[in-house]
Design brief:
Elements (H helix, E strand, L loop, with lengths): L1 H11 L22 H15 L3 H10 L8 H7 L13 H4 L2 H6 L3 H13 L5 H18 L4 H12 L7 H4 L13 H9 L4 H10 L4 H16 L4 H10 L2 H13 L5
Helix pairs in contact: 1-12, 1-13, 1-14, 2-3, 2-15, 7-8, 8-9, 8-13, 11-12, 11-13, 12-13
Length: 258
């Protein structure tokens, strides 16, 4: 989970200023947490407190109205009667990583990921993206190899994970869809040599960098077992006390190493 938040903070600088290389400063002074982190922490809070996902997202999301939400989501967030809006956007996948850390069977992970998505992103591609991201985290956490993760995600969700980052990068551009984000994020993890390398690969695609790095970072955290201490400190000093407390508590309760 911290891996997802760190990816969001690191990638936030390049969301509107995309880059096509891995040589960039991780600790940029303009790095900030965005809606990716706020909503990830909302899902974690719902799991911790055994509360409804929608209630948790509404409650925490409304406390951070300037986090960078998409236009349709922010209308939902401040609606008197919020209803799902059939979105296939990558917002369903960016917030789901706590599910992959908290639940212990594939079926539970898939069921809970669906629930987190359906409150807003009830389009089949939105649900699929959330399930794929959560399952990748679960498989990485429970000892699956890169080849096993690639095969399971490919077979179950029919994403094309045969491409390389170098093949994707030249023509890739800003893409807010699950179907145009989740496979690329998984591929960035699959090619990585470390947590940091995974995030750098995701950002280097030059797309929706905070969300790409958030999803990639969550899988890399699960696979490599921990996030480097300086990056954990980046998260701790960038989040406010409310968000950090939920994050730290979730990691302690679910034995997520940091």
């Amino acid at each position: 989970m911290i891996g997802a938040i760190a990816g969001d903070i690191i990638g936030s600088v390049y969301e509107r200023r995309p880059i096509k290389h891995k040589d960039f400063p991780l600790f940029h002074p303009e790095g900030r947490f965005t809606d990716d982190s706020v909503l990830t922490i909302a899902i974690a809070k719902a799991i911790l407190e055994k509360k409804d996902y929608q209630d948790a997202v509404l409650t925490l999301g409304r406390l951070y109205p300037n986090a960078g939400y998409g236009g349709t989501f922010i209308q939902w967030l401040f609606s008197f009667d919020p209803a799902p809006y059939h979105s296939w956007g990558n917002g369903a996948a960016m917030r789901v990583s706590p599910v992959g850390f908290a639940f212990d069977t594939i079926q539970d992970v898939l069921n809970e990921a669906r629930k987190t998505a359906e409150i807003t992103h009830d389009h089949p591609e939105g649900i699929k993206g959330a399930q794929a991201a959560a399952l990748a985290v679960f498989l990485a956490r429970t000892g699956s190899s890169r080849d096993e993760i690639r095969k399971e995600i490919t077979d179950r969700f029919h994403y094309d994970l045969s491409r390389t980052v170098d093949q994707i990068r030249p023509a890739y551009s800003f893409d807010i869809s699950c179907q145009g984000t989740v496979p690329e994020a998984v591929i960035s993890f699959l090619e990585s040599e470390s947590y940091e390398d995974a995030v750098r690969l995701a950002v280097s695609l030059g797309g929706d960098s905070d969300t790409l790095a958030c999803i990639t970072g969550s899988i890399a955290h699960a696979y490599y077992g921990r996030v480097p201490d300086p990056i954990v400190q980046l998260v701790k000093t960038t989040l406010d006390e409310r968000l950090w407390t939920v994050t730290e508590t979730f990691c302690r309760v679910f034995h997520v190493k940091v």
